Structure prediction request, 330 residues.
Amino acid sequence: MAKMYYEQDCDINVLNGKKIAIVGYGSQGHAHAQNLRDSGCDVIVGLRKGNSWNKAEADGFTVMTVAEATKAADIVMMLVNDERAADIYKESVAANLSAGKAIAFAHGFNIRYQQIVPPADVDVFMAAPKGPGHTVRSQYVAGKGVPCLVAVEQNATGRALEIALAYIAGIGGARAGIMETTMHDETETDLFGEQTVLCGGVVDLMQCGFEVLCEAGYAPENAYLINKGGVAAMNYSISDTAEFGEYVSGPRVLPHDIVKANMRAVLSDIQDGTFAGKWIAENKNGRTFFNSKRAQLAKHPMEIIGKELRENMLWKDSQDGDKGLDSASN
Prediction:
């Protein structure tokens, strides 16, 4: 089992006397800034001029340019889009990132693919909530927290892990549980999960299902399978990196011609009563197949590790009554 940390393992006082610059004030940026401030930390916000600047000021923060904020801060948390981060780093951060400071990320993309290469004399760590920013904020306000991943890429001061854990405690993550990983593993598993399942896979599966039902003559209203917000709402909440992965990888994982052919066969079984007949017979015959498949699923490594994770995370999972970690894209 991966190393876990909780509130008793984190000393938020490590951040006393340190100024934290939050670069970006979007989904994650506003949540980190407000949670840290409410935890008693000294927070400034680094931005380009624009709407986010005005919003951060309206929320009571001292707002500076990214260069000014980096120069003034001891810890610089990069919470801008993956595709913008490298340019912002080169333009405004690199020259002001002096020895002994820390630069942090909520996703390892730019470190993993060497779009950002910090100097050797600064700490580099990741503090990655496993949920969108609005949830990071709402859970904190409710006295709870969102589980987080922590990783230390570079330990120049010898205290990078201490600082990272204190930072995560400041945003509320220690209330739920912190799992140690590497920026390499976080990046690759996160991108894979987004592209094959959470975004690409799910969206393409829903699209195929909608099309098969409509092509079979059902009203689009009956064929619509989404409860709230639609795909556009999901894409608004995820990163552009995840959305791009959705478009390029979803059709590779679920080729529409194959998936739709299989779906048509399933629909045919539903329409002609084959499925209903099987389920009725299964219940009359002691549910032998049903029970064997349920037992087989319970023994799958995915279910076993999922149970262990839920037991080690303190975030309430209302679905199974356990303490658990809901699956969420960063």
